[in-house]
Amino acid sequence: MRHWKGLTAFLRHAGAPLDNNICEQALKRAVLHRKNAFFYKTMNGAQVGDLFMTLIHTCQLCGANSFDYLTELLRHAGELATHPAKWMPWNYREKLGKL
């Protein structure tokens, strides 16, 4: 009874999820990447690996195919350098449609 208010908090907010699987999956990816990061040979390699893992996880969260996204970034490197905000994982498909 002491925890009733906390246990029933989701009932007071319409559309509140009943589980926290999204958070647990994100934490699991972060822990797995941390474990794999022990095998980087240099600090620069670790930073590059972190950058790519961040991009891949962001693609997964917004529903973009990470391989296609990274491929398009390489194909349009010049445009990416001039307008990086237009090449985010959640809006790069709009940019491709205009090309």
Overall pLDDT confidence: 87
Let me know the number of strands: 0
Catalogue the unreliable spans.
none
Fraction of helical residues = 55-70%
Shape: flat
Structural classification: mainly alpha
Number of helices: 6
For the record, give the distance between the C-alpha atoms at the N and C termini, rounded to a whole number. 61 Å
Largest sheet: none
Helix and strand element order:
HHHHHH
| Rg of Cα set | 19 Å
Strand percent estimate: under 5%
Write a compact overview of the structure shown.
The protein has 99 residues and is mainly alpha-helical. It contains 6 helices and no strands. 64% of the residues lie in helices and 0% in strands.
What does this protein look like?
- The radius of gyration is 19 Å and the shape is flat.
- The chain has six helices and no strands.
- It has helices at residues 4-7, 21-36, 43-62, 66-75, 77-82, 92-98.
- It is an all-alpha fold.
How would you describe this structure in keywords?
flat, 99 residues, mainly alpha, 6 helices
Write the layout of secondary structure elements.
Layout (H helix, E strand, L loop, with lengths): L3 H4 L13 H16 L6 H20 L3 H10 L1 H6 L9 H7 L1
Helix pairs in contact: 3-4
